[in-house]
């Protein structure tokens, strides 16, 4: 009986140690994923030649990073993949960034949308700084607004302004409201 009690106690201690190790491993994994997420964000923000007409986003799942978005220049797609590959702890990069087809009509629409949104007095505050928070994506005459704004009113106003541009077939407003 004494041996059985001792055996049960040993199994309990081993089980507790295993559980503690699993918890520590999960915490370390969560910290590593958080660090990778921060570094991916930083590296993508630091890419040269990314402008208001490009949209880059990402998902981190463990040691795998999935890049998504749309870009005008093909070099941005490969540059994004290359900088993310170099981040410590990233084992795989799934590059799903779409390269927008060259189109003179879309290029003209992008400029008109830029003027309509960023030239409007209530939205000019978003033009300040290097990284514009409202991204304007145009593909085949269809516009998508991506990024962040301070209020629901600004989101709606940007969508309304985009819809005033002649030549646009449709506008999808994916702007997110982020309180500062």
Structural descriptors:
single chain, 180 residues, alpha/beta, Alpha-Beta Plaits, Histidine-containing Protein, Chain: A, 2 domains, four-stranded mixed β-sheet, 4 helices, 46% helix, 23% strand
Distance between the termini: 65 Å
Helix count from the secondary structure assignment = 4
Major beta sheet, specifics?
4 strands, mixed
Question: How does CATH name the architecture of the largest domain?
Answer: 2-Layer Sandwich
Unreliable spans are: 6-17
Give the % helix: 40-55%
Rg from Cα: 24 Å
CATH class of the largest domain: Alpha Beta
SSE pattern: HEEHEEHEEHEE
- Overall mean pLDDT stands at 87
CATH topology category name of the largest domain: Alpha-Beta Plaits
Shape label: globular
Strand content: 15-25%
Number of domains: 2
- What is the β-strand count? 8
Structural class: alpha/beta
Q: How would you characterize the overall build of this protein?
A:
There is one protein chain. This protein is an alpha/beta fold and 180 residues long. Helix content is 46%, strand content 23%. It contains four helices and eight strands, in the order H-E-E-H-E-E-H-E-E-H-E-E. It is globular and about 55 Å long.
Helix and strand layout, with pairings?
Layout: H1 2-45, E1 55-61, E2 64-71, H2 74-85, E3 92-95, E4 98-99, H3 104-118, E5 134-139, E6 142-149, H4 152-163, E7 170-173, E8 176-177
Parallel strand pairs: 2-3, 2-4, 6-7, 6-8
Antiparallel strand pairs: 1-2, 5-6
């Amino acid at each position: 009986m004494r041996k059985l009690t001792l055996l049960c106690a040993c199994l309990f201690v081993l089980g507790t140690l295993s559980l503690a190790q699993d918890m520590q491993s999960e915490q370390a994994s969560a910290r590593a994923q958080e660090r990778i997420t921060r570094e991916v964000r930083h590296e993508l923000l630091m890419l040269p030649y990314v402008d208001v007409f490009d949209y880059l986003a990402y998902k981190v799942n463990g040691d795998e990073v999935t890049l998504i978005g749309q870009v005008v220049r093909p070099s941005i797609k490969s540059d994004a993949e290359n900088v993310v590959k170099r981040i410590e702890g990233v084992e795989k990069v799934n590059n799903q960034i779409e390269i927008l087809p060259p189109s003179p009509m879309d290029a003209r629409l992008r400029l008109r949308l830029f003027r309509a949104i960023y030239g409007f007095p209530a939205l000019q505050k978003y033009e300040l700084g290097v990284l514009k928070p409202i991204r304007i994506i145009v593909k085949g005459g269809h516009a998508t607004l991506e990024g962040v704004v301070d209020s629901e009113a600004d989101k709606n106003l940007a969508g309304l302004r985009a819809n005033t541009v002649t030549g646009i077939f449709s506008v999808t407003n994916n702007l997110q409201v982020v309180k500062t």
